[in-house]
Amino acid sequence: MTEEGPPPGEWHDIKSLHFKLFYYKVLPCTKAWSHDWQHCPYTHPNDKARRRSPLHHSYSADMCPAMLQNGTCPKGVNCNLAHNLFEYHLHPDRYKTKMCPAGYAAAAGAAGAAN
């Protein structure tokens, strides 16, 4: 999966909402040393957290039934539905659109809900 990065010369703060919605687990990691993939905001080879960018792929915030049932989708990247939990929870139509039931007691934004 190849994704275009931010426009040339444009730097994105990895803690910003814009980065989280459009580049988190989309852009490939360029670190040449061993590190914890779970805490890295970039994607890695064979990373199950990899997702399609909503900027380049038009898919909704609804889960693909084929992916849920079979773990694969015959439409592949051309499917108009979310293919994994990262695409589902980090979709701009879903991410931080509802208040977290745990409120401020929850880790800030850990589940994709507003605190």
From TrEMBL:
Stated name of the protein: AtC3H23-like CCCH zinc finger domain-containing protein
Alphabetical list of Pfam families matching this protein: zf-CCCH_AtC3H23 (PF25512)
InterPro entries in UniProt: Unkempt-like, Znf-CCCH_AtC3H23-like, Znf_CCCH_sf
Gene3D superfamilies, per database record: 3.30.1370.210
Taxonomic lineage: Eukaryota, Viridiplantae, Chlorophyta, core chlorophytes, Chlorophyceae
Residues covered by the AtC3H23-like CCCH zinc finger domain: 18-51
Sorted UniProt keywords: DNA-binding, Metal-binding, Zinc, Zinc-finger
Species: Tetradesmus obliquus
